[in-house]
Each structure stands twice: as structure tokens, then as C-alpha cells.
């Protein structure tokens, strides 16, 4: 009796048998022209997972590649033994080019051989403080500044030139101080460099300017008072004589300067001489500038004419119509005109 062979246990699972009997996957064939090829290993967007696109896979691959290259390209921390020689060589090169002394060259080597940046910072701080101490010692050892006679004489000369200028806006305050300061800063007259930055020393110069201008103004006022002492106007000094006494040879006598002096004498004669004389002169000048309308000389001619009528006409030898001002005074006038 013939017995039939029992089925193999391998195929006892119907599902497994169906899977085994299923045809094999077809071999890969290139897509028709115009259709993109599908790269193995990348997911395609499906209806179940539309976000899983090739772009996301590309991003993932790029980030992996970037991270890998970043790790590979990041430099290793150089040891002190590899970096110190190059720093030392650079230090020696710069030291020789700067012509440092041998002992200073050793300090450069020590600085370059420092193991850490913190050590170099400490050395640098010590050197900075050392330089600071040396500078302070130099400043302390400098001789105390005093206004010399040469400087004092020039301050007085410039101060007088400013108060004799026909372009001065007022006879007190910054209008008289600043031009003298600028002239001193330009020509120096033996002043130490940068003295104007030293508040204490520059104050001594300022005090000299103030002193001389105060003395000059007082002298001008005394001369005006003396010019009209006589009760007889015929005995008064003419404006030319009065102006010449004020200038004292510091500049030439011009019509413009005589007109300025005439204005001063007018204020003196028509006010209280002992009170607010110079402020009143300043007010009169400001009023004239305001009403001049481009003709500054018109008001001055008015006061000059009135002065000649009240105190005497200038003689023929006192003519100053065509006088050319001195170079020094002209420089001051030009500076005040700007």
C-alpha cells in the first residue's frame, strides 16, 4: 500500500506559502524620458505621509554632512609647545625692528612664553602701571609754571590791541578775552606745550589777561575824564589828541578809531561816569549794530561830528583820513571782523 507524502511543515502556514508563491519584484528599469529617477534609499511623499519628501531627506543628509565636516575641519587645540616658538620668533622680530634693548628683548621672550592669556594680561597690566608711574614722575618734576615778563608784555600788548580795535563788539566779557587767548595759543610766546589743557596753569594766563584789560579800561576812562576837565570847551582835548593818548604808540590813529573814542566820550558826558560806564558803551554799540542796516560807519560818523562840535575840530596836522593801520593792529582787526 502506497502512502502519500505529508505536506512539508514549512508550508503549513497558508500565508507564508502565498508569500513564497508570489512573483518576484521586477528588475529596476530606468523611467521614461522626462520623469525623475527615484533614488534608492529616499522616501517619497505619499498620501499617508505627505511631509516626508525628498527635500527633508536632503536636509537631513546635508546636516549630517555639515556636522561631519565641521567636526573634521575644527582645529585641534594647539599645545603650548607648538604655539610658543612662533610667538617668540614674532616677538624677537618686532623687538629688533623697534630697536629694543637686550633686557627688553628678554621681557618680550618672557611675555611670549607665558602659558596662558591670563599670565600675559597680568604682565601687560604691570607694564602699563609702570609707565603710568614714570609719566606721573615726569609731570611732578616739571618746574612750576609762572608767567614770564616776556609773556606778560605780550599779553599786555595784545590786550591793548583788542581794546583799540574798531571791530570789537563790546569792551568787556568774552568779546575781549577770547581774541587775546587765541592769539596767545597761536604765537605761544614761550608758553609750554599744551598749557591750555592744564586748568591751573592756564588760569594764571587768564588772570593776566583780565588784569591788563581792566587796567587799560581804567586808563582809558581816566584819559577821557582828563580831556574835559576844563570848563571851557575850547580847552578840551580834541578827539585826535585823546585817541593818540589812548593808543600810546601801539597803533596808528585812524578815523575809525577816533570815532570809537568820540562815542566813549559822548557816553561819559551824558551819563554817570562813575557807574556802569563800560556797560553803557557796550549797549550803545549794540544799538548801533542793530540799527545800522549794513552801514556800520554811519553811526560812528555821527558821534565823531558831534565830538568835534563840542570839544574842538582836529587841526590840519591831525588829519587821519588816509592812514593805513599797522600790520599788528590790522591782524587783530581782521580777526575780530570774522
Automatic annotation (TrEMBL):
It comes from the Eukaryota. Residues 66-87 have a biased composition (Polar residues). Residues 54-64 have a biased composition (Acidic residues). Residues 1-98 are annotated as: Disordered. This is Uncharacterized protein.
Amino acid at each position: 500500500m502506497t502512502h502519500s507524502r505529508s505536506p512539508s511543515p514549512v508550508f503549513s502556514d497558508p500565508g507564508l506559502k502565498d508569500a513564497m508563491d508570489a512573483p518576484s519584484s521586477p528588475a529596476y528599469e530606468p523611467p521614461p524620458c522626462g520623469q525623475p529617477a527615484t533614488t534608492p534609499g529616499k522616501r517619497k511623499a505619499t498620501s499617508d505621509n505627505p511631509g516626508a519628501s525628498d527635500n527633508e531627506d536632503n536636509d537631513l543628509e546635508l546636516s549630517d554632512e555639515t556636522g561631519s565636516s565641521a567636526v573634521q575641519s575644527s582645529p585641534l587645540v594647539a599645545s603650548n609647545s607648538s604655539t610658543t616658538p612662533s610667538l617668540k620668533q614674532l616677538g624677537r622680530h618686532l623687538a629688533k625692528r623697534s630697536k629694543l634693548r637686550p633686557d627688553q628683548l628678554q621681557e618680550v621672550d618672557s611675555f611670549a612664553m607665558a602659558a596662558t592669556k591670563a599670565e600675559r594680561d597680568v604682565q601687560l597690566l604691570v607694564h602699563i602701571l609702570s609707565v603710568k608711574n614714570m609719566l606721573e614722575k615726569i609731570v611732578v618734576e616739571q618746574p612750576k609754571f609762572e608767567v614770564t615778563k616776556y609773556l606778560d608784555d605780550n599779553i599786555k600788548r595784545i590786550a591793548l590791541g583788542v581794546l583799540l580795535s574798531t571791530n570789537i563788539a563790546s569792551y568787556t566779557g568774552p568779546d575781549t578775552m577770547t581774541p587775546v587767548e587765541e592769539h596767545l595759543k597761536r604765537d605761544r610766546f614761550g608758553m609750554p606745550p599744551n598749557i591750555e589743557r592744564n586748568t591751573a596753569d592756564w588760569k594764571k594766563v587768564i588772570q593776566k589777561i583780565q588784569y591788563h584789560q581792566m587796567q587799560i579800561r581804567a586808563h582809558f576812562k581816566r584819559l577821557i575824564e582828563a580831556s574835559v576837565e576844563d570848563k571851557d570847551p575850547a580847552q578840551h582835548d580834541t578827539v585826535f589828541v585823546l585817541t593818540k593818548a589812548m593808543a600810546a604808540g601801539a597803533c596808528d590813529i585812524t578815523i575809525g578809531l577816533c570815532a570809537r573814542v568820540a562815542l566813549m566820550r559822548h557816553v561819559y558826558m551824558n551819563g554817570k561816569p562813575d557807574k556802569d560806564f563800560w556797560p553803557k558803551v557796550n549797549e550803545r554799540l549794540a544799538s548801533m549794530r542793530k540799527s545800522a542796516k549794513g552801514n556800520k560807519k554811519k553811526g560812528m560818523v555821527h558821534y565823531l561830528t558831534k565830538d568835534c562840535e563840542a570839544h574842538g575840530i582836529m587841526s590840519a596836522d591831525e588829519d587821519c583820513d588816509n592812514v593805513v593801520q599797522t600790520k599788528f593792529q590790522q591782524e587783530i582787526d581782521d580777526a575780530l571782523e570774522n
